[in-house]
Amino acid sequence: QQQVRQSPQSLTVWEGETTILNCSYEDSTFDYFPWYRQFPGKSPALLIAISLVSNKKEDGRFTIFFNKREKKLSLHITDSQPGDSATYFCAARQQGTGSKLSFGKGAKLTVSP
Amino acid sequence: AQTIHQWPVAEIKAVGSPLSLGCTIKGKSSPNLYWYWQATGGTLQQLFYSITVGQVESVVQLNLSASRPKDDQFILSTEKLLLSHSGFYLCAWSLRDWGFAEQFFGPGTRLTVL
Q1: Which end of chain A is more exposed for a tag (fewer CB within 10 A), N or C?
Q2: Does A50 touch chain B (CB under 8 A)?
Q3: Which residue range forms the structural domain that includes residue B26?
Q4: Which of B102, B93, B100 shows the shortest CA–CA distance to B68?
Q5: Residues A40-57: what's their mean pLDDT?
Q6: Which residues does A69 contact at the CB level (< 8 Å), separation at least 6?
Q7: Which residues of chain B lie closer than 8 angstroms to A42, CB-CB?
Q8: Residue B111 near residue B86, CB atoms below 8 Å
Q9: CATH number of A97's domain
């Protein structure tokens, strides 16, 4: 079964708007949640990550909000740019498994100028 | 600085033929290594991981095998390719610790099975 769920699967926003990508999980043993960005034809690159000890992680225009009680995360991209157009993957690492990651199905973002 | 190299860049193979994909990491000692598979337009599925030379753990069975003959080398192979093996194969590495170890992906190998 899909351990990490993402929504929406795709979305289009206008340049300058804030993009919100959602992620949820069921497994209480997940303790680390990286987000990866993948441009067409390229390999994924780590964008930003958060652990259970934090409720929020910010890096420039990218912010993760984490609701541990509801097991939900969201990635906010402020002032979205056409260059942000890509597929974004939420992933989760199970405690005690080193770096075995489970990935969501991804969210394809298109930013229109 | 660490670099990760995968070979070949792309491969077109016939059903039933053998396959060998490779990955090398330079600039990092004793990394954790991983193989992922991604169908076109799909998610990333972790296939194997290795924390040391000669030791490989299987995550998903896809009629593939992996080996780590050297500290900086990871090999993915099969003796008989299936159509379902088509996709994007990615090697990744992370530091060997049990903290929040980020994984870094190589450039990938695109495989087409006909």
Answers
A1: N
A2: no
A3: 3-113
A4: B93
A5: 94
A6: none
A7: 107-108
A8: yes
A9: 2.60.40.10
